[in-house]
Design brief:
The protein is globular. Helix 3 packs across helix 8, helix 4 runs parallel beside helix 7 and helix 4 crosses helix 11. The protein is 45% helix and 11% strand. It has 2 domains: 105 residues, Glycogen Phosphorylase B (Rossmann fold, 3-Layer(aba) Sandwich), CATH 3.40.50; 200 residues, Rossmann fold, CATH 3.40.50. It is of the alpha/beta class. A 6-stranded parallel β-sheet has the order 5-4-3-6-7-10, sandwiched between helices. A two-stranded parallel ribbon has the order 1-2. A two-stranded antiparallel sheet has the order 8-9.
Length: 334
């Protein structure tokens, strides 16, 4: 609580949700799983449809697009140089399994690396590319933060033990435009995007990658389950992040089946353009605002804690009591 100010943040959320006309969430999972936590009990009824609206965020399609961009050649040169330096020559033309999220244990890079290590077939079909975003693993790994260094160290232990040095590439790619260029280059060689987080609230990185033509293989926990499947239609592959064999099998489902990969690639782009653009999100917000204005509800003056009005002490919630009630939630943000 001292580090993340949970008491202040949760108190602000509870007051806002109690007195709002609508509560906008990015996924159904956010509505039922996050706000169904006991810490929000008595403040919001998650089963009241009139109080919730699911409006997912959108992709910046001016950046994340399958259309080639002028600066793509710069990233192509960077990647080709890195391949020559760190990947064996007979593997230069293989597809990639791209992992691009912050180096944090919760993002489960280690599970992905272990899954890659567990399957010789997978290794024969693709190289694993880990985007480090500001960390030069090969020349200055000690320049990373403590948590990042720990994640990198664990990955290197697996690489060394399983003899994966010339099959795993670390790329220091920074900025959205450069990341989108990498995704487009990956799509050219029928690569996949992997997000094996233990739990992902929404999954913006997934739809950014899909917009550029990558097929997504992602955690089944959280928002990705709603992005990649709907009404029995598959837009990517969902995997169990704590099951390395399932991760490997999920990757093989597309990398070993070109026709399925191309079908999911096509569906993924259409899915993003139809549902996950900022134009679509803005239209949904406008429609929701009009609904509220056309159906006025009784106004109750909100009871706002003094702290948020500039006076009084900050709220201090007994979060341990809530975690005791739901022990499986311990260690996670409610």
């Amino acid at each position: 609580d001292e580090k993340y100010n949970f008491s202040i943040r949760i108190t602000a959320e509870r007051v806002s949700m109690k007195y709002s006309a609508r509560n906008i969430v990015s996924t159904r999972s956010e509505r039922y799983d996050q706000y169904g936590h006991p810490v929000y009990r008595e403040w919001i009824d998650i089963n009241d449809d009139s109080r919730f609206k699911v409006i997912p965020p959108g992709v910046n399609t001016r950046i994340f697009t399958q259309e080639p961009q002028p600066h793509d050649h710069e990233i192509r040169n960077t990647v080709e140089s890195a391949l020559r330096s760190h990947i064996s020559g007979d593997r230069h033309d293989l597809p990639w399994i791209i992992a691009s999220s912050r180096l944090d244990p919760k993002k489960n890079h280690l599970g992905l690396v272990k899954a890659f290590a567990s399957s010789k077939e997978l290794q024969s079909l693709a190289n694993l590319v880990i985007v480090t975003r500001g960390v030069d693993v090969y020349n200055n790994a000690f320049g990373a933060g403590k948590v990042e260094r720990e994640v990198i160290s664990e990955i290197f232990d697996v690489i060394k033990t399983e003899n994966l040095k010339e099959k795993v590439l670390f790329l220091n790619i920074e900025g959205q435009k450069n990341l989108a260029s990498l995704y487009r280059l990956g799509a050219e060689r029928n690569s996949v995007f992997a997000l094996t987080t233990f739990h992902e609230p929404f999954g913006l990185a997934i739809i950014e990658a899909m917009a550029c033509g990558l097929v997504a293989v992602a955690t089944k926990n959280g928002g990705p389950s709603e992005i990649l499947q709907e009404n029995g239609i598959e837009y990517g592959i969902l995997v169990d992040p704590i099951d390395e064999k399932d991760i490997a099998q999920g990757l093989l489902k597309v990398l070993s089946n070109p026709s399925r990969l191309m079908e999911l690639k096509k569906r993924g782009i259409e899915r993003v353009m139809q549902r996950y653009t900022w134009d679509t999100a803005a239209q949904s917000y406008l429609e929701t605002i009009k609904e509220v204005l056309n159906s006025p509800c009784p106004i109750h003056p909100p009871e706002i804690p003094d702290y948020f009005l500039g006076t009084g002490e900050p709220p201090a919630l007994n979060l341990e009591e809530f975690f005791k009630e739901n022990p499986q939630e311990r260690g996670q943000k409610p």
